[in-house]
Amino acid sequence: MKNLMPELYKILGKNPIFNDCSPEKVQQLVELLDEPIHFSPGDFILREGEPPSAMYILFQGNVEVVKKDNKSARYHQLEVLKPGAFVGEMALIDAEPRSADVRALDDVTLLVLPLGKMNKISPSDLDIPTQLKLRLAKTVAERLRSTNENVVRSLEAHLEEAKARAALGYLTSYMLITSCIFMLVLGALTNMVDNPSSTLLITLPIIIFYALTIGLVIHRSGYPLSNYGMTTKNWRVALKESFWATLVVALATILFKWYLVTMTESMANDPIFDIVASADLSLSMFIMICIFYALFAPLQEFIIRGGLQGALQMFLTGSPKRRTWGAILVANLMYSVSHVVLSMNLVFLTFIIGLLWGWLYSRHGTLIGVSFSHIFIGLFAFFVVGFQKLLGA
User: Fold this and answer.
1) Residue 251 belongs to what domain range?
2) What CA–CA distance (Å, rounded) separates 322 from 249?
3) Domain for residue 17, yes or no?
4) Is the entire prediction scored with pTM above 0.85?
């Protein structure tokens, strides 16, 4: 053991219990040690509940203190100990069974300090065990204070999380209920209107009222508006990505229309660019519809992407990827189903394009890019390519 003296003195200097020990005290400690013991990664060094026979000095490697959850059988890491740390030191104070498991994280070497040798020390040499106990008691007291602070912080964090989940749960429930009411009202109004294009003019006030109520609930949730897409952060890169995605969708729309014109009899005589599809509208009505749609689309994005998808991304559990795509799918289903009163074809197409918008929104968390894409694609599909006939809208 004497050949361990220089390295042991260096390692013990990292331990607050021995950071001011003289070489003589370290030498006295070395004389009490048994032969070192070695463990491989994953080996259990101590097991919870077993009676203590020794305490240990971590000479080489790292170990973790873990606690087993009896319900799930999983181990939860409490602490990682590095060279110089004591392992199982509480046995010197109360000799009670081990309170946790200790497991090697890599190749580990431990110096063994048997409790039996400590108990056999003559009264004239009581300096070592007495100092150990006093310093351990001080360390335990410091750990207890730290633990109390950590417990308070943990309780506060759990309380805030519970409040947040309650607020987000209320928001999500409110949005689902109001979405159903909106679809019922929209369906009733659509049946009363002869010209489907006029549906936009009728539903815009409803959408505005819907967005205002959603905004009120979002405000009461306690989360900043930026969590719901109301931010200019990253707007340039979001707009750039949305522009290129929109361009691809526009080209795909033209190719799809070309395929229908060349491959189907029902649309064989239709032009690819059917701008006159809305010839029954006056110029003023056409301009008004375009303006209203430019207002309508961002409100839809605020409700579906910002409100519902944003809330679900915070409310759902699991990995970030799972939360994100779960929120995208649920929000997008609500968005596409809201078009069922207009056309089943429109439901299908809005679901496909809605997945793209949900993904774009999740990347940067701003409504600017997806709102631009929504406005452009909607106006392009209806008033440039002329998808009214295909969609039955």
Assistant:
1) 176-391
2) 26
3) yes
4) no
